[in-house]
Amino acid sequence: MIEPEISLALHPGDWFRTAIVEPYRVDLAQLADHLGFDRESLAALLRGELPLDHISAVRLEEAFGVSSEWLLRMQESFDLAHGGQGAQVQISKR
Q1: 3-state secondary structure the chain
Q2: Per residue in 37-67, pLDDT tens?
Q3: Residues 68 and 61: beta-carbon distance below 8 Å
Q4: Which parts of 1-94 are beta strand (E)?
Q5: Domains of the chain, with CATH numbers?
Q6: Within 13 Å, how many C-alpha atoms sit on residue 48's CB side?
């Protein structure tokens, strides 16, 4: 069986940070407030330390037009490549 290369499985938080937050200089405090996220949890998500849950994926889709299904598939691929680590944790809301 061919095993997925861990480095190929990108965390959706890492992707969102490098594709949207950093290039557009999005203020994390304002983003957290707008999305209704706890600021520390949002920062952990963007560092790839927390998994993206369904509700958060929909909020990102509504705010930025990024497909929630695509983000969740990215999370699933990341979880599978890393042995499912963190799959039960959810982002804290304000």
Answers
A1: CCCCCHHHCCCHHHHHHHHHHCCCCCCHHHHHHHHCECHHHHHHHHCCCCCCCHHHHHHHHHHHCCCHHHHHHHHHHHHHHCCCCCCCCCCCEC
A2: 999 999 999 999 999 999 999 999 999 999 9
A3: yes
A4: none
A5: 10-81 (1.10.260.40)
A6: 14
